[in-house]
Design a protein that fits this description.
This protein has four helices and no strands.
Amino acid sequence: MTWVHSNPVAHANPAGGAPLVQVVFTALIALTFLAPTLLMVAAERRGQRSPAGRVADLIQAITGLPRWAGLPSVTLFASLLSAGVGVYWDDVPLAQGLLRRHGPDTRQEVNA
């Protein structure tokens, strides 16, 4: 008897992948958000103003940062602020509630 034949994992079915419908649906959602961004980038490269360019100009006027640095910095700050609010709105109270019910030393599966 060899090791491969005695290993139960060796004969397990592969995990497979996502159904094609889900892959296509996810790609369409990504394209929905990516296409306007690419169109704005193309307009800026041609020298035309885009909504993102106008926002970058406004940020440059307020902060003094160059357009290429100001827009990503403000976008990053807004994203982190939004994520922080989401964590403290949902995850922290959930964890505190679990600790109150079960204590810090218990190992419970969380199905939230």
